[in-house]
Amino acid sequence: MADDPENPVLTYLRRIDERVDRLAEDMREVKSRLGILVSQYANVSNRLDRLDERMGRIENRLGLADA
Known about the structure:
Layout: H1 8-62
């Protein structure tokens, strides 16, 4: 029985399973990196909003603001 050839379907299924495992790990890494990017984008966006507010106050004090 040890000399019986292995079932080709099982061989393909094992290969598919290995590839799915690698894809799942890659997706976890991509999601992690995307989460970091979203967080950094939110931080930059908040900073730009504050800068916009500050610029508006400066323009008002200098009389440069549009009426």
